[in-house]
Specification:
alpha/beta; 21% strand; globular; binds flavin mononucleotide
Length: 169
């Protein structure tokens, strides 16, 4: 199984921390959207696309990339992100976080699906956020992703790997 991660992480490198865990488990290379070689994409069985969430979407460079991707048949992909929503609110009701993530991922998900990608799973967790006025109060979600978030990321990637191996049998 050959996997590639396409990552854009700039605010606090929060999403990069998650991508590094995925890369280790999946033995995947990490590249930016600008480094993609459309020809080489054919070599990969699994592609992961991730960034922070900015204005309720993935980074525009990932969305632009998805627009430019050639159409594929039956190619597996997954989507990931870190987001800056106050976790104190979300942790009271986990289903609220799931709904929030679902909405944030919808643009990238729909673009990839329209190109023929099957989205086999999605991952998101909180990330330190000092955007705009939040920097005046020292930011929110300090220390996130934390050790537990990274553990969830590892479990997520192990699960992906296992499912792909099972499907190959
Ligand atoms: C310009 C900007 C806009 C953002 N907009 C959102 C948003 O709409 N929703 C959200 O949950 N977090 C938002 N955030 C917070 C980031 O998603 C969060 O900090 C994320 O972990 C950043 O990932 P990165 O460090 O990998 O870039 C925003 C951050 C920035 C800098």
């Amino acid at each position: 199984m050959k996997s590639l991660l396409v990552l854009l992480s700039y605010h606090h490198n929060n999403t990069e921390k998650i991508a590094n865990v995925f890369a280790k488990v999946l033995h995947a290379q990490i590249i930016t959207p600008h480094q993609i070689d459309h020809e080489e994409l054919q070599e990969y069985n699994l592609l992961g696309f991730g960034s922070g969430i900015y204005s309720a979407k993935h980074h525009e460079s990932l969305l632009d990339l998805a627009d430019k991707l050639p159409t594929v048949t039956n190619k597996k992909a997954f989507i990931f992100s870190t987001c800056g929503v106050p976790m104190k609110l979300m942790e009271r009701d986990k289903s609220e976080f799931t709904k929030y993530v679902d909405k944030n991922h919808s643009s990238l998900r729909e673009k990839l699906q329209s190109k023929g990608y099957t989205i086999i799973d999605e991952f998101s967790c909180p990330g330190f956020n000092t955007n705009s006025f939040l920097k005046l109060i020292g930011g929110i979600n300090k220390g996130r992703p934390n050790a537990e978030d990274l553990k969830h990321a590892e479990e997520f990637a192990q699960n992906l790997k296992q499912n792909l191996q099972d499907n190959k049998r």
